[in-house]
Predict the structure.
Amino acid sequence: MSAQALDRGGPAQPLLSVRGLLKHFPIRNGLLGGVTAQVRAVDGVDFEVLKGETLGVVGESGCGKSTTARLLLHLIEPTAGEVIFDGERVGSPALGLTSFRRQCQMVFQDSYSSLNPRLTVETSVAFGPKVHGVPHREAVARARDLLARVGLEPGRFAGRYPHELSGGQRQRVNIARALAVQPRLIILDEAVSALDKSVEAQVLNLLLDLKQEFGLTYVFISHDLNVVRFISDRVMVMYLGRVAELGASAEVFERARHPYTAALLSSMPSLDPDRRTEEAPLAGDPPNPIDPPPGCRFHTRCAFAEPICSATEPPLAAAGAHHEAACLMVQPGSGHSRAPRAAA
Amino acid sequence: MAAFAEQAVAEPPPAQTVGYWAGVWRRLRRDPVAIGAGIVILLLILMAVFAPYVAPADPLRASTLRRLRPIGSPGFPLGSDELGRDMLSRLIFGARLSLFMGITPVILAFFIGSGIGILAGYVGGRTNTLIMRTIDVFYAFPSVLLAVALSGALGAGLGNALVSLTVVFVPQIARVAEAVTTQVRGRDYVEAARASGAGGLTIVWVHVLGNVLGPIFVYATSLISVSMILASGLSFLGLGTRPPDPEWGLMLNTLRTAIYVQPWLAALPGVMIFITSIAFNLLADGLRSAMDVKQ
Amino acid sequence: MLAYLARRVVYTVPILLGVSLVCFALVHIAPGDPLVSVLPPDASLELQRALRTLYGFDRSYPEQFVRWLWRALQGDLGTSIASGRPVTQEVLKAVGYTLRLALLATAIGFFFGALFGFVAGYFRDSAVDKLASAISVLGVSVPHYWLGMVLVIIFSAILGWLPPTGAGDEGGPWQFFRHMILPAVTMSVIPMGIVARTVRALVADILQQDFVIGLRAKGLTDYGVFRHVVKNAAPTALAVMGLQLGYLLGGSILIETVFSWPGTGFLLNAAIFQRDLPLLQGTILVLALFFVILNLLVDVVQTALDPRIQRA
């Protein structure tokens, strides 16, 4: 539809560039409201989302995936950092929040909580276009079109209330609602995680289909590695508010360079006996994001940790073609015994 | 596309479409207690509205010769009061002031309290803290004490009693409104609406109000019973309406001297307050369970 | 726990400040010059000015508030206009009467409320349960001042068993107690209904929890189950009782008026009709303080009793 019409920078320019994104939640001591600590939910994140791709974001719960999603949409204000959408900074005069939000939508995990229980699904889907000035009739017509497109025959479903639908049907409504403002980017925050496996597969196929038809770009957030692998072109692994590894899906899944990614992958159930890994699965819970460990944040749980790891914070370094990892073991001359020699 | 449609349809077929309020009404209709209470309230209101047509006599016409006639006397089906006025007529006319004084403060407090609570809940942050801490101060007074203190300081009179009772109920309703709004504000559909680019007022109008007014309304209904007792109580203390206007609480007060002469007659106005209060309580209970759908 | 305690106490300070501000404002929302109630109608201008200075009405509101609060903190709530005695003295005397009445009423209300509630919750949906629920609805719906009148009609006017009004101090403790019965029973109806409701819900909830079902499955006797239920329901039930005591202390005015019980409610009534504003202000301040402090105590005791409430 209109996605191509809005394109400005051409296919080479990333649709979304995130620079130094930071979100610290202050913890107030109830009484005097003084800030006693900071939860470093997202602590300096840089990445890009290319036009037409699906970027998968994985990590344990509490690693900052969902906060990142909400920061991208400016549903919460970032502490620092900027989001650049197709060459324009979000919030700049050239790209106000409202026009940005028209181009960028979100689908949430809880399909019930994300629909207003007092509105029929048709009204819910038509709400977005009406906010953007589409006349009522036209908005409703578009809503019915989209309901049909996501597999819900409008004649039967348009007048229903959310509690009268199944989880899968509600998530289809949420997808239609996101599409209704004709966005270019959709952020899917655990959008299929709450669904039964069979329904999940249907919704994933629907998403792939819609992506092609409408020329969409996805940021797909999930803790389920199988699903991410299935749908993503590139994958970003997050740990404690930081990017641990970033690269083409096949690269990351086949040749994980960060021990954290490797550990995640080894905890992934596999039916193939040859794919059993020797690496130790992740033990324990991630450290507290109020007081993250110094140096590499993963060193407290890492099988290869050396003294240097708690002293130096590894930057994202190239670890192959279209592949980066934030680990001293991939950074030449870092001082870690397994690091490649520095090219003199 | 056809394939998707088929798959979606294969999921469990939903029941017939019913809007939220239609569902509430359907459940309420099956609750005989609530319906009974509703009918009693309706009758009381009709009685108040059509008092001049229902009452057999003028509620203000006194007669020194016919004072304190017992219940069942000829011409005085429910006896006569300490000034010889017809009890039945006074009880019927009393419904006007008593219901007015009991219900008005709750209605006023519903609007003011909802406004304050929704504002605090939706805006959050420091505004919320400021509003809620102020409300906590009013919560530090038992409601009877606050009502008596305010109308005692303002002086006796209908208007002052209404103001005092409204001030008593505003913090209570605001607190409920704030709690419900904070809860709704955290729902994903509000986030989704913000993500659609909708402004604060639009979101409150379309997505918040519809989901918070119901619970606030139920809570307010349950306050009417308390308000009836408090309002009549203020009149009973001489802080509400003034003689000779018929009002149940005030009638109870003036008849106190008669308890050794016509004990059961003296208790009659209280029976009316009691019936009204029970009816509102039962209706509020019924409404609460009819609106409580766990999904 | 200690940190929570400290925070809870400190949190009470702004509330107390707000409460005293409201009490202070009471005098100033009253229509007309607060001085009028003190002055004889033919007072000379000089006398007016002198009294104005004496009561501090010539100063700004903030200044008056601070002075009033400072004095109140030292236990000086001013002088009653009607009686000429210190307000503090009058209020404390009345508080003694109200407190005794409220304690007896709370005890009666808690005993019967807990009993009804327990039986109703234990035999849920039985006839007993329905009866108990009906009683608790009646308890919260009844205009208690009317109930007081009805009790007087039955037990004093008709049967002549108990005295209708007054405190009967002069007749010794037995007379005093006899005078207390009717007002205390009347007062107990409110907490009875609320305690019954709370206990019923608590017991029904606890009996449905997995651990009780587990205990039963392990062959625990009814007595054993009973002990578990009591142990788990007690903290909440006691907290509700504590709060009810506070409500009764502050809300006793209607009942005290019916029974001419010489407590704070009676004092308040007198203060209102004699336009004795210092007395009105002082009485309300003391009652509200009682209520706030009682709330604090209940909260702290509940936290200490109930291991499930973890307050950092």
User: Anything to note?
Assistant: The longest helix of chain C spans residues 172-208.
